[in-house]
Each structure stands twice: as structure tokens, then as C-alpha cells.
């Protein structure tokens, strides 16, 4: 038997799905569960019902010890580099490159170097303005982190964006670890360069394996969430991967897909 989870509390949607699946469902506090021996393609169902639907994966959620999330457009609502560029009146140009990089059409390192170079000369004050005025934790993110913490699960954020933001997030919402790129700064202005190793797809995956080694957990005890092409490598080294409002290539590779609701949908899988 397989369990399909309908991630909504809307009974009308559950009844419509029951008509399609042809089986009874069980109501849980935050979602509905359908037990079936049929193998259904849930992709068209998601579109028809406008709701998140996932098979309960063969994965032991009671053994999870680590959760690693991408930052931009996964844990938070923006691509920080696009918003910084807005202060240089270059948002359309930079955002276009970011979008192509996240679709996997560009070499990540080269595209990051190119975009950061466009930020040269900006006052560091704009970083604070982006953080306080534009950056918000995505829906359900704080609830998810609070839940994971209660389960004794370590949490981390990793980003091809910048440490200025990952470090402030760690302080403000209580994550355990962070890793990202460091913007080079001189005399309170961005130099247009990046310091140290670039955090690309490979470096993100390395961060996950490093944390596994540090806490002596196996890949089957790790959940990773992301939305862009540079998240695919870390998704491949984790036992369970979540595509959050993600690019098509990421949705294709993920174990769990969230395209309608918030990050707290992940909590539904622990409800056993
Ligand atoms: Mg992202």
C-alpha cells in the first residue's frame, strides 16, 4: 500500500481528489492521507486541484538529524543579489543572469563573478536595507525550524548568495549553521569581488557531507531543500530532497515537491 498526502485542510479539495483516486481518505490535523495500491502520477493531479500532493516516501522520518536549506527563494522570499543590484539601478540586468543561472543555463561561478562585479562601489549600507526592508522568511519557514528544533534536528542554511544574509538569519531565526559567499568590502563599499572559495553547487553538497561527518549521521538522516539548479548536487547527497517553488529541473529530481504551500508542509511527513 502507498500513502499519498494531500497537503491542504480544504475538505472540498480532498473530496475531489477522492473522486479521482477512488479511495477513502483519512483527515489529519494539517492534511489528508489517501491509502492506495494504485500507482498514480501526481503531477497532473497537483495542477488540476491546485494543491501540493506527494507520495509518502520510503524514508524513516524518525531518524532525521539534519536539515539543510538553500537560502534565496527557498528559505527566504528574494534573490538577495537582485535586490542589492536594485540599489545600483541594475536589477533587471542582474535578475536576468540570476534567473538563467538558477535554471542551470550558465556556469555558476562565472555568472556570480559577473553579477558581483556590477555591484562595485555600492555602500555596504544597502546590505542592511535589503535585509531589513525586503528580506522575509518564506511562509511556514519559522514554524518548520521551530518544529525541527523540538525534534532535536540540527538546521543549516547554505547559499550561493552572501554570508551577510546567512549570518543575520542564523542570529534572527536560530539556525545552527550557515555557509555562503563573502562579498569583498573596502572603506565601507563593495569592491565588486568575492573573497575565498565560491559556494557553488559542489561546495553546497560538500557543506552537507561535512555536517554529516561532524554529527556522525548518514545521508539517510538528512533532508535538503532547494529551488535552483545549484541545489541539485546537495539534493543528490541527501537522503531526502525537497523542491520548494522550484525550477522544473529541480522538481524533476526531488523526492518531495512543494509548489503551492509553505515550508511547514514538510512537517506533514513527520505526522505518524
Ligand atoms: Mg535558491
Keyword list:
single chain, Alpha-Beta Plaits, 11 helices, elongated, binds magnesium ion
Task: Describe the model.
The chain has helices spanning 11-21, 42-49, 80-86, 91-102, 108-117, 125-134, 141-150, 163-173, 201-215, 232-237, 248-253, and strands spanning 2-6, 25-27, 32-36, 53-55, 66-70, 154-162, 177-186, 189-195, 222-226, 240-244, 256-258. The chain has 272 residues and is of the alpha/beta class. The protein folds into two domains: 2-56, 2-Layer Sandwich (Alpha-Beta Plaits), CATH 3.30.70; 62-270, 3-Layer(aba) Sandwich (Rossmann fold). Strand 6 (154-162), helix 8 (163-173) and strand 7 (177-186) form a beta-alpha-beta unit. Helix 3 (80-86) runs antiparallel to helix 4 and helix 4 runs antiparallel to helix 5 (108-117). The longest helix has 15 residues, at 201-215. The mean pLDDT is 97. The chain binds magnesium ion (MG).
Task: Provide a short characterization of the protein structure.
The protein has 272 residues and is α/β, with parallel strands linked by helices.
- Overall pLDDT level: 97
Based on secondary structure, the structural category is alpha/beta
Q: How widely separated are the two ends?
A: 16 Å
Q: CATH class of the largest domain, please? A: Alpha Beta
Number of domains as seen in the coordinates:
2
What ligands can be seen in this structure?
magnesium ion
Query: What is the succession of H and E elements?
Result: EHEEHEEHHHHHEHEEHEHEHE
Strand content: 15-25%
CATH topology annotation of the largest domain: Rossmann fold
Would you identify the CATH architecture of the largest domain?
A: 3-Layer(aba) Sandwich
Amino acid at each position: 500500500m502507498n500513502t499519498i498526502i494531500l497537503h491542504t485542510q480544504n475538505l472540498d479539495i480532498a473530496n475531489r481528489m477522492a473522486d479521482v483516486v477512488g479511495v477513502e481518505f483519512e483527515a489529519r490535523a494539517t492534511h489528508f492521507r489517501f491509502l492506495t495500491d494504485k500507482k498514480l502520477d501526481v503531477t497532473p493531479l497537483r495542477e488540476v486541484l491546485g494543491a501540493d500532493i506527494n507520495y509518502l516516501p520510503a524514508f524513516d522520518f524518525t531518524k532525521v538529524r539534519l536539515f539543510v536549506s538553500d537560502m534565496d527563494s527557498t528559505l527566504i522570499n528574494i534573490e538577495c543579489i537582485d535586490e542589492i543590484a536594485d540599489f545600483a539601478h541594475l536589477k533587471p540586468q542582474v535578475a536576468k543572469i540570476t534567473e538563467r543561472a538558477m535554471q542551470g543555463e550558465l556556469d555558476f561561478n562565472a555568472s556570480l563573478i559577473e553579477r558581483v562585479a556590477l555591484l562595485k562601489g555600492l555602500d555596504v549600507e544597502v546590505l542592511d536595507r535589503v535585509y531589513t526592508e525586503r528580506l522575509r522568511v518564506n511562509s511556514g519557514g519559522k514554524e518548520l525550524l521551530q518544529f525541527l528544533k523540538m525534534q532535536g534536528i540540527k538546521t543549516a542554511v547554505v547559499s550561493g548568495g552572501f554570508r551577510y544574509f546567512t549570518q543575520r538569519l542564523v542570529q534572527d531565526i536560530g539556525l545552527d549553521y550557515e555557509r555562503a559567499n563573502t562579498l569583498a568590502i573596502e572603506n565601507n563599499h563593495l569592491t565588486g569581488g568575492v573573497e575565498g572559495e565560491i559556494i557553488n553547487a559542489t561546495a553546497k553538497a560538500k557543506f552537507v557531507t561535512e555536517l554529516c561527518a561532524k554529527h556522525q549521521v548518514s545521508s539517510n538522516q538528512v533532508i535538503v531543500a532547494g529551488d535552483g539548479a545549484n541545489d541539485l548536487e546537495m539534493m543528490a547527497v541527501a537522503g531526502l530532497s525537497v523542491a520548494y517553488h522550484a525550477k522544473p529541473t529541480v522538481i524533476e529530481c526531488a523526492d518531495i515537491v512543494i509548489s503551492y504551500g509553505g515550508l511547514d508542509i514538510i512537517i506533514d511527513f513527520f505526522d505518524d
